[in-house]
Amino acid sequence: MTGKHIRVMDPFQCTPARCATSSGPARLSRFVALMVAYVVIGAPSLHAQQSNPTEYEVKAAYLYNFGKFVEWPAKARAADDSFTICVLGQDPFGTTFDTTIAGESINGKKVVIKRVAKPQEALGCRILFISSSEESRLKEIVATLDKTSVLTVSDIPQFTRRGGMIQFVVEANKVRFEVNLTIAQRAGLILSSQLLKVAISVRRSPQAGD
Question: Which residue has the higher pLDDT, 83 or 80?
């Protein structure tokens, strides 16, 4: 499923930047509807029209929705009072998270956005976006998070071949993603079949780097 010919009815009528003056719940509901369209239907072109969201607004949308389409181990769910989405390294999202996602809930848990400088600080995160600024120490980061239940996401090249779980890729001006299902399952995570159907590639490698 590529989404090349799928048209979502006016999905960008209320992007994060354009809805800054809208009421919180109304703004959020529209943005969440956009995110569901991206995950379930497929992402329209980033540059098809001037009102489309930026690349990192789309990636923020995906990160939020991953929380709805991934199941964490019961132990991890019970230990958390909130649903924490973390960014490790240089933050490319700017205020996107703060203006659209922070304060929303996933499965009854309030979403909290956290920026971290070290992988050790991400052990309590549900989802960790690893910035491209951290590529030189990716091996160390993956090793630190090994045997944890942190869903790792990045747009670093070859991320899913280097120990990561979900990698963003831009294909024909659309933000899509690849999945390394084996690594996610090894961490005790269950990825929805809906999510896997939308992924452009699902790896089932016995080891990272295979």
Answer: 83
Specify whether the CB–CB gap between 27 and 186 falls below 8 A: no
Reported as a pLDDT band with limits 50, 70 and 90, residue 171 is confident
Is residue 159 domain-resident?
yes
Q: Is residue 10 part of a domain?
A: no
85 - beta bridge partners? Answer: 113, 127
Instruction: Provide the number of structural domains found in the chain.
Output: 1
The answer on pLDDT for 166 being more than 70 is yes
- What lies within 8 Å, CB to CB, of 87 at 6+ separation is 93, 97, 113, 114, 115, 116, 128, 129, 131
CATH number (domain holding residue 124): 3.40.50
Residue at 169 is within a domain: yes
Q: Are 126 and 72 in contact (CB under 8 A)?
A: yes
203 touches 181 (CB < 8 A):
yes
Among candidates 9, 13, 17, which has minimal Cα distance to 100? Answer: 17
Domain span at residue 96 reads: 24-203
